[in-house]
Amino acid sequence: MAIADLREWIALLEREGELRRVSVEVDPHLEMTEIVDRTVKAGGPALLFERPKGSAHPVLVNQFGTLKRTCLAFGVSDLDEVAAKLSDVLEMQPPEGLVDKLRGLQKLKSIADSRPKVVKRGACQEVVLRGDDVDLSLLPVQTCWPDDAGPFITFPAVITRDPRNGSRNVGMYRLQVLSKNTTGMHWQIHKDGRADFMFSEGRMEVAVALGLDPITAYSASAPLPKHIDEFMFAGYLRGEAVELVKGVTVDLEVPANAEIVLEGYVERGDVAIEGPFGDHTGFYTPPEEFPVFHVTAMTMRRDAVYPSIVVGKPIQEDAWLGKATERIFLPAIKASVPEIVDYDLPVAGTFHNCAIVSIRKAYPGHARKVMHAIWGLGLLSLTKGVVVVDEHVNVHDYSEVFFYVGANVDPARDVVLADGPTDHLDHASTLPFISGKIGIDATAKGPEEGARTWPPEIAMSGEISRLVDERWAQYGIDL
Ligand SMILES: Cc1cc2nc3c(=O)[nH]c(=O)nc-3n(C[C@H](O)[C@H](O)[C@H](O)COP(=O)(O)O)c2cc1C
Ligand SMILES: [Mn+2]
User: Fold this and answer.
1) Which ligand is nearest to the CA of 275?
2) Between 79-90 and 230-238, two packed helices, what is the crossing angle to 10 degrees?
3) Half-sphere exposure for 344 (CA within 13 Å, toward CB)
4) How much is the pLDDT for 30?
5) Which in 275, 294, 317, 318 has the greatest CB count within 10 A?
6) pLDDT, tens digit, 9 for 90 and up, residues 224-238
7) Tell me, what's the pLDDT at 111?
8) Residue 102 confidence (pLDDT)
9) Confidence of residue 104 (pLDDT cuts 50, 70, 90)
10) d(C-alpha 379, C-alpha 192), whole Å
11) Does residue 312 have its Cβ closer than 6 Å to ligand 1?
12) Ligand 1: distance of its center to the CA of 173 in Å?
């Protein structure tokens, strides 16, 4: 059974000893961040702040803050199990024989069952505040870092529809609280929510869900192709459809299980300065104009719990959402670039600065082909640096990768400089949105690639290795 909602998730975390209730009053203005920062960096528990200063709503933070909790959220012991579920679908072959056909049907059925289901009533509408009653200051919104422009809602699922074809998008875009009923809408230039907005004329309705079951919450951060509904993806990963209810003031559906929902609209030409905000890059992003989100209704569960996340210098909680994405999307990446064996996005690279990719190298120039494939693939296209290694190299072992970068690279021959789009938040590029790219080919090179005779790598023979295994106890060496 999938985790039904945020409350069931909190209960599960508590049963597993993965949650700490903080019962003293804590200020969401800076103090909470310092507590969370220390807790995340120490691999500590999820935190439920029961008495945030100035609000009646408890705050849940650090729900994804370790690999163990991230696995718990997905109901697996290894994130590659989630990936396997996806590769199951991506690698479907024409069935052979009856058993295969039945298995195929089962898979198709589980896709069909993933479609979000619209239900009549949802707990997220137990309390309804409209018009003048809307008051964002009721929520314990964190001001995370000292130079932040104000409080920011950091863990939202922002729901829009493409005005051209009605397809839904769900994205995690932070919302700076600007007044009791307006926020900024920080969808960056490469994101699907912004594309929906650019395709619309005049007003576009928006709904924001806060406080979801962990897989649905995660799905808002997943870099899916635009036409794929994140709630469908969440349903597939959960093994159970996401239930939606109609908004009370907008023609959009929202997760029935949400703790809090903000309904409203954005309008062309209606912008405000957003930021600065201490971002996941480890730097403050400068003030910039973004659309204003006008909140027409705020609906809630009774005793709603408010979810938050702190981003900043790595490592922070979002590292684990990123790791989940790295693992879950490997099968999709392999589906278009099958020679890729594995990849790693180092947390210190804040996900768009560096990718390490191992490949089954088959021809001269192959590593370069893969670099360009990465630079052409969804949001991975924003990656500034790509390191390519041979298939036997463990991309998650940075020391091993560095060994091959040092040993196998002639910088005059094996470094590719290119350019292309860069992350909206990249401050190092000369121009916004465009930067140089560096590719490092750390694979073994052949003569066709201009290399001299490539020496064999040192390894002990299997025979001697087995002999030493067998005799180890006799040597009397404790290791
Ligand atoms: C905690 C967190 C905060 C994020 N904040 C933003 C943000 O403010 N703006 C943005 O464009 N992307 C932000 N992202 C990244 C997007 O959620 C991510 O790129 C996602 O793919 C967007 O959905 P889309 O692909 O449907 O546009 C954030 C991600 C996380 C995990
Ligand atoms: Mn999307």
Assistant:
1) 1
2) 110
3) 17
4) 98
5) 317
6) 999 999 999 999 999
7) 82
8) 77
9) confident
10) 11
11) no
12) 5
Distances (CA, A) of 271 to 23, 25, 259, 294, 367: 39, 35, 28, 11, 44
pLDDT of residue 191: 98
Number of other residues whose CB lies within 10 A of the CB of residue 126: 13
Q: Which two tokens stand for residue 42?
A: 């120490």
CA-based end-to-end distance of the chain: 44
| Residue 1, pLDDT score | 86
Question: Could you tell me the two tokens for 196?
Answer: 């929906």
Q: Is 251 a catalytic residue?
A: no
Which long-range contacts (C-beta less than 8 Å, at least 24 apart) are formed by 197-200? Answer: 197/160, 197/266, 197/268, 197/291, 199/162, 199/163, 199/164, 200/163, 200/268
* Pocket test residue of 174, 323, 326, 351 for ligand 1, highest count of atoms within 8 A of CB: 174
Q: Which of 162, 213, 229, 279 is catalytic?
A: 279
The CATH number corresponding to 337-449 among 3.40.630.40, 3.40.1710.10, 3.40.50.300, 3.40.1670.10 equals 3.40.1670.10
For ligand 1, atom 9: residue with the closest CA: 173
Ranges of CATH 2.30.110.10 domains, the chain: 6-307
Arithmetic mean of pLDDT, 84-113:
79
Amino acid at 259: E
Q: Closest Cα to atom 18, ligand 1: which residue?
A: 221
Atom of ligand 1 nearest to the CA of 226: 26
With a 6 A CB cut-off, is 153 part of the ligand 1 pocket? Answer: no
pLDDT in tens, 231-261: 999 999 999 999 999 999 999 999 999 999 9
Q: Give the count of beta carbons closer than 10 Å to the beta carbon of residue 75.
A: 17
Ligand 1 atom having least distance to the Cα of 193:
27
Closest ligand by atom to 221 CA: 1
Helices (H), 91-185: 97-112
Kindly report, as residue ranges, where domains of CATH 3.40.1670.10 are found in the chain.
337-449
Model pLDDT, residue 442: 98
| Cα 55 to ligand 1 centre (Å) | 26
CA distance 374 to 357: 9
- Give the model's pLDDT for residue 45: 98
Average model confidence (pLDDT) for the chain? 96
What percent of the chain stands above pLDDT 70?
100
- 193 pocket-lining for ligand 1 (C-beta < 6 Å): yes
Q: Of the ligands numbered here, which is closest to the C-alpha atom of 168? A: 2
Closest atom of ligand 1 to CA, residue 379: 19
Closest CA to 312 of 351, 353, 281, 349: 281
Provide the 10 A C-beta neighbour count for residue 239. Answer: 14
**Residue nearest atom 28 of ligand 1, based on CA coordinates:** 172
Measured CA to CA, the distance from residue 174 to residue 258 in angstroms comes to: 17
Q: Return the amino acid letter for 51.
A: R
Q: For domain 6-307, which architecture applies? A: Roll (2.30)
Using the 8-state DSSP alphabet, how is residue 367 labeled? H
